[in-house]
Structure formats: C-alpha cells, structure tokens
Protein 1
Amino acid sequence: MSVKLTGDNKTLKKMSDPKIFTNVLKQNAVEMNEAAQRNAPVRTSYLRRSLIFYMAANGLEAGTRAYAEYAKYVELGTRFMDAQYFMYRALQAQKKQFQIDIRKAMKKR
C-alpha cells in the first residue's frame, strides 16, 4: 500500500510530526494483519500463524508478511487451484480505514 500526501502547506506541516503518521500506520497495519489472519484459509493453521506484522525502524513502513512458503500460491492461485485473495481483501478493507484514520488524526492537530 502506498500513501500520497497532498494538501496545502498547513496540512502538510501537521504531517511533519512523525508520531501522528507512525501511530496511525501501526494501528492500521496491525488491523490488516488480523484481517488477513481471519481471511486465510485453514487446513493446518500454519498459513494463518505465519502471517506476521512488521514495522520498519524509521516508522514509515509497516505491513503483513506471510512466512509460509506456499502463501503466494494460496493468495494468487495456480492452474490447479483458484486464488483465495486473503491478503488482498484485507488490504482493500484496511486502505479505506487508513484514509479515515489519517483524516481524523489531522483534524485533532
């Protein structure tokens, strides 16, 4: 997921405080990870347990990573199996919430 910030100088100066962005990003990345875990198909629960939240040291990047070797095949499908899109659905749902949360955080400042 990429984020593009647009607006007047006053609005962009509010975002210069990294804590605002970092807190909203972390909250939304954790929620996206939980949604991906709920959406993941379960046979042995390994795929669901392999979904891990991560956040970069600079606080400007966060997300979910699947450590199960076969996660990409479940997500995108193969010629023998339909795609499940468990990560994509979580991302699409969280993208809308992220925009709402950023707007709320900006209004509080």
Note: The mean pLDDT is 86.
Protein 2
Amino acid sequence: MVRSNKNNQNHAFNDAFDFIKRNYLIIAGLLIAIPYIKRYLEDQATKNIINTGDNFVKEAEAKAEVLKDIKLVENSNPLSQNQKRKAITASSALWSASSSLAHDLGVKYKDAGHWWDFMNPRGWTENDEQARKTLVYQRNNFAILEKLYYEVDTNSRSLRADILEYLDKDELTYLRKYLKI
C-alpha cells in the first residue's frame, strides 16, 4: 500500500523539526558566531594586504638606499665621473661649474652618507657669492648644469632645492633676476 503524500510531508517536517530540537544550541551558536568569524577573516585579509604593501614599500626604500650608496661610490671615482660627464655634455666649462657649485654650496662634503660628515669643515662654509656668479654666468645652460649636479657632483641632490636652501636672501633675490627658481 502506498502512503499518502501528506504523511510523507509531515514525516519530513517532523524529522527536520526533531533535528532542530536536538541541535538548537549548535544552530544558535553558529548564527551568532558566523558574523564575528566573517569579520575576523576580513580583518585578517586586510591586515595581510597592508603588511604586503608595507613590505613592498620597505623593500623599495632599501633598494633606493642601496642604489644611492652605489652611486656615491661610483661618483667618488674620477674615471666614472668623467664618463658620466661626457655622456651629458662635452663642455668642460659646465663640468667645472657643476663641481664648483657643489663645493660652493657646501653639499659635496655632506653627501658621503656617514654620521660623522657634519665634522668636515668644508661642509660648514658656503660661498654664496661665487655660487651666484657661477649660476648667472651659466644661466643659459642651467638644465645641463642641473643634470650634471644631480648625476655626477652630488649624491642625487636637486640644484634648485639646494639653491633655495643654501643661498642667502640677497643672493637669491639677485639670482632670480636671471633665473626662474
């Protein structure tokens, strides 16, 4: 004999209801815990992404520091300096102007990257008048001079920033008549 469809539905409903009655604590615990677990997992994923980004930034900074140190060693070698200078320009007047600017502004001796660099007295003095004269004289070649200063004579220092930082106000006012700084 075939049972009626209604009894099968009641039986399935009763089985489901019995399951819920037997496991109501587990079900309630899951309903309460799932949002907290989900939030925890999302926070951990976010922290992992942030840590990965921080590690990437730290690695990039470390590589930049190493490249800066390598450039400092290369720039202390006169042969590599001349090769770099020749690659930028063939004018020896610009070469000497760039190195004299690094000397006159006092930054050539501060770039070694050691903690005792402040004790070098050549880095304490600035010859603002001579730097201004050199810049006014080479005003038509300022872009090339800036490139030489950045790549060869200093350890990746901006000539414009150094002019604004190290020149006195009077010298800077006079220089602004000839250069847009």
Note: The two ends are 102 Å apart (CA to CA).
Protein 3
Amino acid sequence: MGNDERELYSVGEVAELLGLHVRTVRNYVRDGRLKAVRIGKQYRINKEDLAALTGRPTDDTAPEPTSAPGHAEVSSIVQIDALGPDAAHRLSTFVTAGAQSGRDVSEPLRIQTVYDEERTRMKIVILGGAAATADLLHMIDGLVGPDSGLFASASTSTRGADRV
C-alpha cells in the first residue's frame, strides 16, 4: 500500500498533520469528536473521519506550506470565567465554525477549546494569521458581551429568584 492510498493514521500522525498535541487528538477521540478504531492498544483514524473533523480533504502528497517573507502568525489565549457547560459548548461550536468559514484555506486558523467545569472557566487557544485571528477575537468579544444572550440562562434564573 503506497502513501497515496493510505487510509488509517495514528494519533501522532493526526496530531502532526493538524498541528495539535497528541493528547488533544486522543481527547477528541475519547469525546467522540473524532471517530477512530482501536487496534490493540492504539487508535487509528480513517482518512474520511479526519477530513470530516477538519472540513477539508487530507492530501498526503501536498507540499508543506512555506512561509512568505513578512509572514506573521499570532497565538492568543482567551479566558472566559463564569460560563456554564451549555454556554461553553455553544461558544465552542460558534468559534470553531467561525474559524472555518470564509477563510483562506492555505492558512487556516487552528483552534482548541478547553472547559473546566469545576471552575466554570473556558479557554480558547487560537493560532493563525494576524487578520484572521483579529476577526475571530472580535467575534468572540461580540458573543460574550453583555447583550449577546450567551449568559442569559444563568442570569435569568437568578433574576427570577430575586423577584419571588
């Protein structure tokens, strides 16, 4: 089986292809975000399942992207406190969709979201070009602002208790 016909990837290979940590890819598999088959003690990820996660086809023969002169990459970490699990899930979906829509496919944003239920805190890690990162940060600012309604479920339940 040649490299062109490859159908299964290891967790390490997927992590390298996506620019993620191996632990992150394992968590995606355990959480059901990425389908995988367990062979012995290791997971194997099908090429189609990887494409479904990323929203773009995998191409083993594609050359490594080279940085143009003056290319800038930004890394940002956004921390949001007092966020319930449902709101965190909605925000994660919005951010992931926002990062994939209308962007230059040659330089996609890389996003990772982590939610700490104990501290009701969410962190969003963003890696990518300066303009695309700024656009996404602007979107996040709008989503978590006081008029967004993202926190409505928590604030309306406490307001309702105050009125009784």
Note: Helices lie at 11-18, 22-31, 47-54, 85-100, 130-144, 152-163.
